[in-house]
Design brief:
By secondary structure, this protein is an all-alpha fold. Helices cover 68% and strands 0% of the residues. It contains 8 helices and no strands. Helix 2 packs antiparallel against helix 3, helix 4 crosses helix 7 and helix 5 crosses helix 8.
């Protein structure tokens, strides 16, 4: 006797950002939660890299999400939701930096503060020292170069998205990135 096994339903695919934005605009709170949770790490990471301080980064990320929720009805969709949200996050981080009178940007050294990232203490110390050296070099770049380098290297954004976030053309974003990388190489030699 053959037993008929009914197939399991395929797992539902997560809706894309555009669908979630439309649902959130219509008042669907769970859709908004999914949308914001999906981008939480990227927003915090960008804020941390721009501010170099965990507490300030959390504050800036929170401000970015509050501003995004308040402005969701005005989101036109000309850029991706992620790009739009990262621009808001970059602006929030800039505001926090101005309020604190700080200009420190990237917290690369914090990457080595987790146990197990480097196999032995000597190597960890060398890696931390090098990371701090890179951090200082990135912090010394002009603002648009800093943003372009940070967004390309750490967020993996394309030049169009970088341009949207820094408020320039795509060509200018490319130039800022390449000049920033060139200056970093010169400073780190």
């Amino acid at each position: 006797m053959n037993t008929i096994v009914s197939p399991r339903p395929a797992p539902a695919e997560a809706p894309d950002d555009a669908a979630l934005v439309e649902r959130a605009r219509a008042g669907d709170r769970p859709a908004l939660d999914v949308l914001l949770t999906r981008h939480l790490d990227a927003v915090y990471d960008l804020a941390f890299r721009l501010l170099g301080d965990r507490d300030l980064a959390q504050d800036a990320a929170q401000d970015a999400f509050v501003n995004a929720v308040r402005g969701l009805q005005r989101f036109r969709g000309e850029a991706s939701f992620r790009t739009w949200l990262l621009r808001i996050a970059a602006n929030a981080a800039r505001s926090h930096a101005r309020r604190r009178g700080r200009r420190r940007e990237v917290g690369i050294s914090a990457l080595w503060d987790r146990p197990g990232d480097a196999p032995d203490p000597a190597e960890r110390a060398a890696m931390r020292s090098e990371a701090e050296r890179v951090e200082r070099a990135i912090a010394a770049l002009p603002e648009k170069q800093r943003l372009a380098v940070t967004l390309r290297l750490y967020q993996g954004l394309d030049y169009a998205a970088v341009a949207t976030i820094i408020g320039s053309t795509e060509g200018a974003a490319r130039v800022n990135y390449h000049h920033g990388i060139k200056r970093l190489r010169e400073m780190l030699q």
